[in-house]
Amino acid sequence: MTPDSAAAALRLAADRLRAAGQPSPEADARILLAHVLDRTPGSLVAAGPPAPGEWATFEDLVARREAGEPLQHLTGEAWFRTVRVEVGPGVFTPRPETEVMTGWAIERLVELQGSIPEPVVVELCAGSGAISLAIATEAPGCRQHAVELSSEAWAYAARNLRDTGVELVEGDMADAFRELDGTVDLVICNPPYVPLDAWLGVTEEVRRHEPALALFSGADGLGALRVLADVGARLLRPGGLLCAEHAEVQAESAPGIFRRHGAWAGVRDHRDLTGRQRFLTATRR
Ligand SMILES: C[S@@+](CC[C@H](N)C(=O)[O-])C[C@H]1O[C@@H](n2cnc3c(N)ncnc32)[C@H](O)[C@@H]1O
């Protein structure tokens, strides 16, 4: 039977999600009902009872969430800093920890715009394109390029970056943008980095629903970061900046790759909003 109010629908859904072991049952129920009713979660208090068709759709989404489908796959969207991106099966859902690294890049680009009219930016491992879209939105006026290896993920990025002017290429970062060698002002990358022995520490939801190509990169998880140290050195002009995300357990090993490389100066590691060491920055010598 259709519940007689939005509040009753939310209570029923939250009870089901709690019983299924979902960690945020109330928040998930609100986001799903808001999605079905095409409202913001904050405006649900003013919503009337769902119509029978809306209730059927909501129940279906709640059942899929009970079964462990990511919330963002059910709504088809994820928020990243100031932007919304389309996500779903086949593409990595952008994470809050990456927002801090992207903020570091945006601050540097805004500073650079004081002396360089159109800074050149390259994003490697673009996934949904969330990082490039945030840069295009928050530091407009840069000349932006992005590359993604997976054709499924590339298709999401192509939709998310349409109308931004970002040049988006499907391919391997190892060979990307050779025509820009030595001219780029900033390289940003959130590569795959989960060490294989951390596989069991990855939640079942992530293991089942995130593409393996987005997560893993060799036994120690550092394969893509080693490639990045070479590719960044090739692309950046002297004094150009690089930032790259890594796992907390790589707080020594990931910056170590750049310190030992020879092309990099000023290698530093940074913390995310929860205080964990999650991204490195370096300057091209
Ligand atoms: C952790 S995800 C990050 C996606 C996005 N930048 C973000 O922060 O949400 C890593 C991405 O790198 C892509 N990738 C893996 N190896 C790559 C390579 N050699 N060249 C380009 N992209 C690669 C994966 O397909 C995946 O989309």
UniProtKB/TrEMBL annotation:
First-level EC class: transferase
Domain Release factor glutamine methyltransferase N-terminal, first and last residues per copy: 9-76
Keyword annotations of the record: Methyltransferase, S-adenosyl-L-methionine, Transferase
Annotated substrate binding sites: 190-193
Residues of the Methyltransferase small domain: 118-193
EC number: 2.1.1.297
Catalytic activity field: L-glutaminyl-[peptide chain release factor] + S-adenosyl-L-methionine = N(5)-methyl-L-glutaminyl-[peptide chain release factor] + S-adenosyl-L-homocysteine + H(+)
Superkingdom of source: Bacteria
GO molecular function per UniProt: peptide chain release factor N(5)-glutamine methyltransferase activity
InterPro entries associated with the record: DNA_methylase_N6_adenine_CS, HemK-like, N5-glutamine_MTase, PrmC_N, RF_methyltr_PrmC, SAM-dependent_MTases_sf, Small_mtfrase_dom
Functional note: Methylates the class 1 translation termination release factors RF1/PrfA and RF2/PrfB on the glutamine residue of the universally conserved GGQ motif.
UniProt record similarity statement: Belongs to the protein N5-glutamine methyltransferase family. PrmC subfamily.
Protein name according to UniProt: Release factor glutamine methyltransferase
Organism: Ammonicoccus fulvus
Gene name, Swiss-Prot/TrEMBL: prmC
